[in-house]
Write a structure and sequence with these properties.
The chain is mostly helical. The chain is built from eight helices and no strands. The chain is 72% helix and 0% strand.
Length: 213
Amino acid sequence: MYAETIKTAELNGANSTKRSKRSVNTRNTVLDAAVALYQVHGVDKTSTSAVIEKSGVGRTTFYRHFKDRDDLLNQALMRDFDELMSDFEAQTRHYASLETQIEEDMIWFLDQFAVRPALSLLFSDIEWQGYQQTAQSLASFRRASLACAKPTFERARDEGRLREGIGLDQYIDWASFVVISMQVVKLPVLENRVRSREMLRNFLVPSLISVDR
């Protein structure tokens, strides 16, 4: 009897795992379809029906995973932010110079908006006022910024090089402002890594840490 109970529990656990995996795969299929359509037609012109048709799932299945098109966009952005944080934490990048560490952290973060399809939409012509859940996406942006900036911030703090009045919140706020500004303005220097680093070195780094001239 005991052995049968254990076996039943194991089967239930295995079935639960399969259902969970299937649910994740379905969600990702829909998100991939949505992002593909966003890139072709734009977010505002992509309908829920079009996403359902492209993903190949049923309408009932779609609404089991997403409340509406607002939630769909939000989850697409959050998925990219989650993957961004995971990828950043998985890599081991340490530079002898703190200045270089800040520059390379920023370059890596900037690159993510080009290589991650949902994040690349953040600075497109989306009428954001029509999306009520953007606050969640902004919270994800904040978490991603924290994950990527905190290790270098702590290094600067431990080395006693943070500028006066720069705490973790100020560090993240200013670094995030620079990232957003460079994306929105589309500065031509983004096409030239050397000049991008020069801009970061001359304008961002001195605002965060003390720099020997």
